[in-house]
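Run N-acetyl-gamma-glutamyl-phosphate reductase through structure prediction, thanks.
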Amino acid sequence: MSSTAKRFRAGIVGGTGYTGAELLRLLVNHPEVEIACITSRSEDGTAVADMFPSLRGHLDLKFTVPDVARLAECDVVFFATPHNVAMRMMPELMAAGVRVIDLSADFRLRDADVWAHWYGETHTAPDLLAQAVYGLPERNREQIRQAQLVACPGCYPTAIQLGFLPLLEDSLIDPNQLIANAASGVSGAGRQAKIPMLMAEASDNFSAYGASGHRHLPEIEQGLADIANDPVSLTFVPHLLPMIRGIHATLYAPLRDPTLSLKNIQALFEERYADEPFVDVMPAGSHPQTRYTKGANYCRIALHRPLDRDVIVVLSVIDNLVKGASGQAVQNMNIMLGLPERAGLEGAALLP
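Sure, done. The structure for N-acetyl-gamma-glutamyl-phosphate reductase is below.
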């Protein structure tokens, strides 16, 4: 092995969607990792660079049918698949000792019955739910380091949990009166033909959806309850923005102590995230925009207290495909493999 050879081999299951494409973009530039295989049953034999010409000159691989024996030769395997795919392959991969990062929802919830309720089918690997580590590094870094199976958080859950986390850890807010209004670009719906995501439908429009109950809600409440060490109640309303990338979450919570100043809350956030490489607490009074994180693995947060009333407002923005999916998956991989956490993720946000 030459001095320039990469140390670790990564496999990707299901690489034809947006999260798969984003994983490829990040991994081809990773200093310590090479992509060993990428799978797609429908695109078997197709050159990756033919499907994604942006990768011409960066990756010389073809899509192949998923094969556990070949995947088992990798140091880490990513699942960038729709829900219900990873859980069917996971028992065999786990038995082979493969370390896996699942970007789907298959292992985010610990209760198989709750999962079945929200995803409309029976979970096929319920025994593995307890083994999965929830891959929010800012909360579970040490568990991630030792994990064999990491369940990468969803995009909305990432932005919302990071926004509420310091407040719940210090019991500064009422956990039973949490509100999250969050809006996402159309790429959050995946790379498939859906009428609401067509340019003529989504452009010049703004709409809510899933207001009566969204499948990310149980994941968010589970994570927030873990942080608070107590049950929480969250009103979560997602919205669709007429843009491609980005999530903007506006979070509201009543303060337990109305005499607590915004200055003290700002200091709490700055201290809590001081050593976190991918969370940026902006100056008090800032209004972060989605373009501040476009293409980058950052969550940017700002705090407000309107009219000094007893409600704290947290603004939390991420790129749904990076910190909300593939970037966070690479961050988890770096932790699992003992690599510098920033490796392959140093890029600044794109502007414009």
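The chain has two domains: 8-131, 155-320.
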